[in-house]
Design goal:
Strand content: 15-25%
Number of strands: 10
CATH architecture: 3-Layer(aba) Sandwich
Radius of gyration: 17 Å
Number of domains: 1
CATH class: Alpha Beta
Shape: globular
Distance between the termini: 29 Å
Length: 217
């Protein structure tokens, strides 16, 4: 197996690195794009997917944000709980059943791309889709390197995974511009999210688990 790059890459070089390693692969390939809120996960995943499609590959785009738990589960530990944000935000069982298992290299290919609408806070059951035997599945989301997303042998489920490295001060600034949220990383109104993600980084060390680290500041 090729050695992981020793230093973080810039985003364009990182996308080229990923494309060069994905194209020769046979069957389906699961690619996870991880990072804190505001790190640029969706944009990076979309750009990678476009590059892969331009090279002639079939690409399936999935977002973990479409597999939220219902609000009563997400806030079961309290609406300000950082541990609740880390532990209870996502329905990993449904994500595994509908995405990871069917779209893995040995999966049947019959998948669903969404289980929950966060805007309306309602469960959804879109029609099943069937992926071709050769496809690249690009998933963006928080907490993609946590232990819940490891196989029975303790290895991460991703064939390739990325950690987008962005300081909290910058990611919070971006979120403030995008969503109107507080711009101060120490603001108590966003403590649940910032502290929950800090715990994730300290507990699971995603930069070490990822195959590639991107400086996306």
């Amino acid at each position: 197996m090729e050695t992981k790059p020793a230093e973080p890459m810039r985003r364009d070089a990182g996308i080229s690195w990923l494309v060069s390693r994905i194209r020769p692969r046979a069957g389906r390939t699961l690619v996870g794009i991880d990072g804190v809120d505001g790190a640029g996960k969706t944009t990076f995943a979309d750009d990678l997917a476009a590059e892969l499609a331009d090279s002639g590959l079939t690409v399936i785009r999935i977002s973990l944000d479409d597999f939220l738990n219902p609000a009563e589960v997400r806030h079961a530990k309290g609406r300000t709980s950082p541990e609740g944000f880390l532990a209870d935000s996502y329905d990993y069982q449904r994500f595994t059943d509908d995405v990871l298992e069917p779209l893995g290299s040995d999966g049947c290919g019959r998948y669903r791309a969404k289980s929950y609408d966060g805007l309306t806070e309602t469960p959804v059951s879109p029609p099943w889709q069937v992926a071709p035997d050769a496809a690249v599945v690009v998933v963006d989301g928080l907490f993609l390197h946590r232990d819940r997303l490891r196989n029975a042998r303790g290895r991460k489920v991703w064939d390739l995974s990325v950690w987008l490295d962005v300081p909290f001060e910058e990611s919070v600034r971006r979120l403030a511009q995008r969503d109107g949220s507080p711009s101060d990383v120490d603001d108590p109104r966003i403590r649940r999210y910032v502290e929950g993600q800090r715990r994730y980084i300290e507990r699971y060390r995603p930069a070490e688990r990822a195959d590639l680290v991107i400086d996306n500041t």
